[in-house]
Structures are given as C-alpha cells and as structure tokens.
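Human: We require from you a protein record containing the residue sequence and its fold in token form, and nothing else.

Assistant:
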Amino acid sequence: MEEDTIVIDKKTKKPILSEELCSGCGICTNRCPFNAVSIINLPEALDEPIHRYGQNMFELFGLPNIKEGSIVGILGPNGIGKSTIIRMFSGELKPNLGIYDEDVSWNDIISYFKGSQLQSYFKTLSKGELKVVHKPQMVDLLPKFVKGNVKKLMESVDERGAMDEVMDSLELKPILSRDISKLSGGELQRVAIAAAALREADFYYFDEPTSWLDVRQRLNAVKVVRNLAEAGKSVMVIEHDLAALDAISDYVHILYGQPGAYGVVSQMRGVRVGINSYINGFLREENVRFRKQPIIFDVKPPALEIEAEVIADYSSLKKSYDGFSLEADQGKVQHDEIITAFGPNGIGKTTFAKILAGVTKPDKGKINKKVTIAYKPQYLVSDFDGTVEELLLTTAPTYGTNMFKTEILKPFSLEALMDKEVDELSGGELQRLSVAVTLSREAEIYLFDEPTAFLDVEQRLKAAKAIKRVVESRNAAAIIIDHDIVFIDYISDRAMVFSGEPGVKGHASSPMNLRSAMNSFLSSVGITFRRDKETKRPRVNKFESYLDREQKEKGEYYYLES
C-alpha cells in the first residue's frame, strides 16, 4: 500500500506505530534491538475504550459499578488500570473515551453513560457536587505532607464525630501523642485509614488498606471500612489480600488484560463468586480465560510430623533490647520444608529472623550448626547505583544460566525491568527483585521477611511457587514471615506462632504443623476461618455467625474437618 506503518514523530523524535495498518507480523519486534516494541493481540472484540493515554499507550475498557451502602472490591494485577479508575472517579482525570488527541466535554461523557448509574455519578462530579476521600497506597509518604502528632491530625479531620470509636477500633490511642514522622509502616497505615474514615464524603476509596498490618489489625481495618457502608456511604477498595478482600467487600470487579498495555473491567459479581472466578482464571459470563491454570489450594491434614533430615537446630534463645525482650523455644529446620512465622507486629519476628541470619547475636542460646543463610529483610533499600541487569550481574551468582531463567527470571517477570534503574523501581518491582536476588544465592536456608508487601495476588502466588521450586531443587529450607493468610496457607509445611505483648515482650513457639499453629494463633485473636467448598481457599467467618460460634465451641479456629 506504500504507507509507512512506523513513522518518527517530529516533536518527540520517537517512533509511532499505526495500529490501523499493523498486521501483527512481528517483524518490528524482532528487528528492534532494545525489545522496545511488543504487539499484543486482544483476547476478544472490545468496544471503544473508556480512556486512552495516547497512541500506542495504555487503554482501559469499562468501569466498575458504584453501589450506595455497599463496598465494591477491585481485584487484579498491578499496572492494569486500578489507579486510572480511581483518578476518574475522584475527578482527577477526565475519561476521554479513547479520544486522546482532543478535549472531550463533560456533556459527551455524561451522554456516553446514558441509561447507567454512572451517568448521574459523572453529572454530579462534573458540577463539583461530589465529595471524594482517597486513602492512598503509599502511606510511607504521609510524613512528607502531614506534620505534628497523631491526635492533632485526627482532630483536624474528624468531620463525622467518630474519633473515639475509630481510635478504639484501630487501636490508635496508645500512639496519639506520637509524632507522625516517628511512626512505623503499620502505624502510618492505621492512621491513614482513620483519617479517611473520619472525613465526611459521598464516596470513599481505599487503596491497599492492609499492607504493613498484621492479621488482627487487618480485620480491625475491615470493621472500620464496613462501618462506612453501614452508614450508607459508597466505598471502593483495592486489595491484594484475598482473605481481607473477601471479608471487606460485598461485590467485586475483576480486572484482566496486559499490565501496562490494556485493562478490562469485568461484570460485577458477588464477592465469593468473583474471588473464585479469579482463582479459577475463567470468567464464565464473559467467556474469557485470563490464566491457563487455576490456583489450587492443598488441604493439608494435621499429619504426624514427618521426621526428615535436619539442616539446622537451635537451643532456646533470648534477646533483650531497651524495653523489649524476645524468648524463642528450641526448634529445628528440616530439608525441603517451608516454615512460616506469624503473629502481631512488634512481637519480635524480625528480631528472630536477624538472629537466625547472623545479623544479630542472641543474649542466651545459640544456633547449634552453622548454615549458610540467604536473607531478604523487611524494609527494602534501593540505594544501588545502576540498572536491574547490573545488580543481577553483581549479586546473583547463577545469573545467565538456564536454571536462573526458568526458576527466577520468568516467575518474577524481571525481563521487562532489566534496563530500569534500581532507584526508580516501584515498591512491587523492588520486592520482586529482592526475592529473586535472595533465591539466586546458594544457601541452605532462605529467610524472607514479609515478601508479599506491594505484590498483587498473582505475583504473591508466583513467588510462592518459585520459592517452593528452589527449596525442593536445592534440598534446602525456607523460613517466611508474613501476614497474608491465603499466602501462608498456600506455601506452608510447618509454622511458628509469635505471641506476647507487642513492643514489650515476645515469645516464639517451636515449628509445628500448620493446623495446630493456626488454631493457637487465631484463638488468641478470636477469629475463625473456614474453607471455601469450591476452591478450598481460607475464608474469614463473620463474627458471631453460626459457623463462627460452632468452630469456637469445638476449638477449631482454622477450619473444620469436612
């Protein structure tokens, strides 16, 4: 046809691909030496996009529904359009209906949604008559924008007169006099949730409200957000912890597509059906399969502990700091097993990890056999000066081997990050890189402190599979500290329970079977879990429901034997 499919833009000096002329032959993707071009075939014939950022750029198809007095959950991978949706609903971004090169009027947008509930929503929003409150994802940036102590902040935002109730629910009263700049990640998260819930608005949006929180704090946050819906407010929540999403939402929308390229919003489903559809990787009503294999949860019976070859054992340990002490019962770590450690924040889990890793010395007790440990700390620091590829070349001994490609590079989707500067990575990208670097090292025990923070559901379960594979192929072991019950259930062989008084004293149990550990831990926080009949995933029982009371009477807090 003698027309150029690829032309150089005169202003930006960058190439532009004509999507009308492109036949998807793949020549340009093979010819480009920098892997800068990728051609994506859409899985179905999609209507016009709701929004498009520009030619050859991300586009979003569809929008979620908003229900007054209900909580709508958004479930999907990172980079699929969740933030774009919220920016539209909050009025920060006008949906351009795919017309990215000219201004689209509010009348056109309102007319586009004619006959749907979103018509009246955007009509009210365009007039500036809608008040939106947004709890952001990156709560660690809060001290940059808010100064003073917690009490001062709470009093300044309490428009609903619910300060005492919210403070009690989120257990914030002990830190009211603390300066915001001195708070930990979990404390900042609870302060941010409280600040959002205390304001008066029509629409509340919570972006990942459970990261940094322990299991009990997660369910306290669920109560606070659910109270908003019970007061007749419209709430939308983005959450990657499936147990928390299940407990918090009434309905869910699944987002699928290609991260960074396009995202599609599914139909609204009830929360149980929606999460199960996500786990199965198939949307029956839309007839779309977005994952080849379903995620399978193994129901592990409370088996007798199998005696396996011991990698390392330790005597009872003691460690004291100014105002805090930790005691750990003696225990042993066996070949080919994954031990998870859980309990409240500030109870000594990280201290225990540092003792095992040799970063901290105990005051009493010892590790009886010296072993090589690969350790991923809780807080990630991106002070490396260079690209991801340069970091892997210097820190990953197996980099470049076929084993590295199949066991680490692909599961953690690192190919797309290779040319990125390490100090410019997002939280999720940095977490994937940190777990991958730890797994690439030759070690007898792999120690991970909160490896799921900032990861979406898919990435969490891919990380779990990768950790399992590496541990088994190297005849090693792993110890993982985490708060995501679904992840813990998916990956654990045995578990340790941390109990005590947060910030004062902690006690670590010996590793035991998962059922016993979960029963011990959940009984202390008064929460019961059941298994979903279809997918076998753990689900939180509603407080004081028939099943909740029945399981508590039997002492089966984790799940009843079926």
Remarks:
- The chain has three domains: 60-289, 311-512, 526-562.
